[in-house]
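Human: Here is a favour to ask of a fellow structure person. Comparing notes only helps if you start from a blank page. I am asking you to supply a protein in sequence and structure-token form. Write it directly below this note and I will take it from there.

Assistant:
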Amino acid sequence: MEKLAIFDVDYTLTKKETAFEFLKFMLKKNPTFIAHVPKSFISALFYVLKIYDAGKAKERFLGFIDGIEEKDMEQIVKEFYKSKLSQILYKDAIDTMRKLKNQGYKVILISASAEFYLKELYNIKEVDKIIGTRFKIEEGIHKRVIEGENCKGEEKVKRLMKYLKQEEIEADFKESYMFSDSLADLPLFKLVGHPYLINSRKRYNNIEVLNWK
């Protein structure tokens, strides 16, 4: 049976929220995207006010990707990883990942953030699988529309189970780990024998809180 080490990304693996960092990166790369900034912040506000659900807010927030060619996006996200994403990783997260990988664990990143830029985290050699929210690509052109469901809460469990089934992996959940900053990941916390909250002020039952830097 396969032992899993599952990591959320935003504020678990990274010190900052990746979608906002991607927006800032794109603004620096192409200042004309400034016209989209009000829409991004309005979508975030509407999510807080519960006018938008998380999926719709994400589509609006990342609306500036609409129309970018796939080949151009591939280069963009490589630059994003090198100049920004790789610079905001918690050292403790990487060290934990490396330790568990050396103990024979399969390392899986599961996040509600966009998979098209999260896939650059495969640059971390310990990472076996990345699962994130997928955005549509039609005829080689990126769209701001989510493909399937927003990868959050119970959807993370569904996506994980689908991956394990496809790869014919029998998981030893009792011996598996889950690391996340948020209780939104309770479905995954309840799945494993070793759940850990990261840098969280909130506590839930007997889930231990780790302080990562």
User: Anything to note?
Assistant: The longest strand covers residues 106-114.
